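Researcher: Re-running this chain for the archive, since the previous output was lost when a drive failed. Same request as before.
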Amino acid sequence: MYIAIIVVLIGLLIYGLTEKRDKKRDKLDTDLAENMVQKEEDANADIVSYGQVQERKGQLNELIDANLGEHPEQSAQLKDIIEDWANLKIESFENRRSWVRSPGQKKTDD
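Model: Regenerated structure tokens:
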């Protein structure tokens, strides 16, 4: 009788441990897949330097001046949008590179 109870308890223990291991493995596999997707997105991101952003901004502003000269309000709005876009691109480039310049500092945006 005692042997049967011990065998059942050992069986339950083994079953519980293997289930826990399988759940951990599934979570690790999911995390790994998410990390791979994030790395793929980062690799395909359109990261440009400050000079490239300024050059593209100048090109767009010239295009607006050439084609929308008779619409000053819309032209000004588009230039504001382009300025905001350029600032965001520059900020994203600086944020992406900031860990290289100061690896000891942790980001405290919270």
